Amino acid sequence: MHSKTCRHGASRETLPLWNKGPGGFCCRFFPGYDGWMPLLLPDAALDACHRFLDLLDLWNRTHALTALPREARFEELVQDSWFLVPHLAALPAGSRVVDFGSGMGIPAVVLAIARPDLEIIALDKSRKKMAFVRQVALELKLVALHPVPARAEDLPALEASLGVAKAVGSPRLLASWWARHGRSGAPLLALKSQTWAEEPGPDASWTLTPHPYRLPTRGDRVLLEIRQQTSP
């Protein structure tokens, strides 16, 4: 009989796919292109991510924040967002990151957990969803996570050092937002499906660089780097 939880406390309800890594089945390992690879979530971050999912489940019962099944949320929300974390390494403390179309705080909450020294702005027009993110920030003590209920086109320039987005907007739309809110030469990183190239793209002053990756059960994805060319 298998244990109902892995060594980090992830349950079958939260994470039905248990991945066999070093030391047995564990939520911190997933199948990559070259075999089993570590997700590399520190224990404290993993605990905070599970607390976020618990809050999402609680709010979702009355506020209908997401139609994503509970058993898919760790992989689709936490694991997918964590692929952005290595791209934060070069940002100094205090840098501003904007999550466009953040919804219930993805990937903003995961990034705030991973890098509490950064200013993370969760931007979404839904006041209901931003109220949830505000509650998450309070309960998880994410003091640098700031939910902003507004449209990107209605705000003054945010001068962000990095932009992120998950499953929202075409590359053309994301580029228009980033032209307004990003620092010169800074990238926007969008978590997209493999069909991203079929979406409307920006003009020739922008470069689009795809970085493919794979989720355990939800298939191949692309981290799309969107960057405006700067004059020499």
Q: What gap, in angstroms, lies between the N and C termini?
A: 64 Å
Q: What would you call the shape?
A: globular
Structural class, from secondary structure content?
A: alpha/beta
Total number of helices:
5
Number of domains: 1
SSE topology string: EEEEHHEHEHEEHEEE
Which percent bin holds the helix content? 25-40%
* Oligomerization category of the chains in this entry: single chain
- CATH class annotation: Alpha Beta
Provide the residue-averaged pLDDT: 86
Largest sheet, order of strands side by side?
A: 7-6-5-8-9-11-10
Strand tally: 11
Uncertain spans: 11-25, 28-38
Q: CATH homologous superfamily?
A: Vaccinia Virus protein VP39
Instruction: Give the second-level CATH assignment, the architecture.
Output: 3-Layer(aba) Sandwich
Radius of gyration: 18 Å
- The name CATH uses for the topology is Rossmann fold
Question: Can you tag this structure with a few keywords?
Answer:
globular; two-stranded antiparallel ribbon; 11 strands; seven-stranded mixed β-sheet; Rossmann fold; 5 helices; single chain; alpha/beta
In short, what is this structure?
27% of the residues lie in helices and 26% in strands. The chain contains five helices and eleven strands, in the order ββββααβαβαββαβββ.
What does this structure look like?
- By secondary structure, the chain is α/β, with parallel strands linked by helices.
- It has one domain: Rossmann fold.
- It has helices at residues 43-63, 73-82, 108-114, 127-139, 171-181; strands spanning 19-21, 24-26, 29-32, 35-38, 96-100, 119-124, 145-149, 162-166, 188-193, 206-215, 219-228.
- Strands 7-6-5-8-9-11-10 form a 7-stranded mixed sheet, with helices on both faces. It has a two-stranded antiparallel ribbon with strand order 1-2.
- A hairpin with a 2-residue loop joins strand 1 and strand 2 (24-26).
